[in-house]
Amino acid sequence: MHPLRDSLRPLASLAATPPPFDPTVAPENPLELFVAWFGQAVEAGQLEPHAMTLSTVDADGVPDARVLILKDLTDDGWWFASSSASVKGVELTANPVAALTFYWPTVGRSVRIRGAVTRGSDDENARDFSRRGLGARAVALGSPQSKPLGSRDESEAAIEKAARELDAHPELVSPTWTLWCVRPSTVEFWQSDAERRHQRLRYSSQGQSWSTTLLWP
Predict the structure, then answer these.
(1) Containing domain of residue 182, as a range?
(2) In angstroms, what CA-CA distances link 189 with 1, 3, 12, 111, 215?
(3) CATH code for position 198
(4) Is residue 139 part of a domain?
(5) How far is the C-alpha of 89 from the C-alpha of 95, rounded, in Å?
(6) How many CA atoms lie less than 13 Å away from 80 in the CB half-sphere?
(7) pLDDT per position as a tens digit, 168-188
(8) Domain total for the chain?
(9) Contact between 27 and 34 (Cβ < 8 Å)
(10) Which of 7, 50, 145, 182 could, after both became Cys, cross-link 70 (CB 3.0–4.6 A)?
(11) pTM over 0.90
(12) From start to end of 75-150, where are the E strands?
């Protein structure tokens, strides 16, 4: 395989001009700062600002990561949804801790969240599933996520069957559909600088309050 080094070096990085940020006057709660940064990313035209990387660990302690969508942010933490039978669902059930990473290159910012993971209630899971579009519900009902697939035709047939079942019974809910919440122990805000003089501010949970620490770039 041809090495990529010569192709990678000329590529631009950290080209954005971030909005002003003074960590010395940051809010006491990291959720408030996240909402502010998220809003600025949206205003700047960041594509899919709610996309985030979810990192988990398997039974052998090997990390695993994938990109999915933020469902909500509440006082409890950051919410996402998935089948409990998926790889991430199995890993979260066995070891309910996770990390989330948001990266918004349009504003040169990133946020990292680490913490314990809890599940939504049966009613919350059902409500979230029912709010999904028909196609998304059909996929959730008709496909055993992450399992080996024989052919594309096999998956299309299973999803079409699930869509017909939903058409006949709109109240159907996937028994494995689960809301998950990352309850943060630490939240780190990173703002880029073209000269690599990045700003980093870490919030650490202290029970009902938070402490903040400036970090070297």
Answers:
(1) 23-132+175-215
(2) 37, 33, 22, 5, 10
(3) 2.30.110.10
(4) no
(5) 10
(6) 24
(7) 999 999 999 999 999 999 999
(8) 1
(9) no
(10) 50
(11) yes
(12) 77-83, 97-104, 109-119
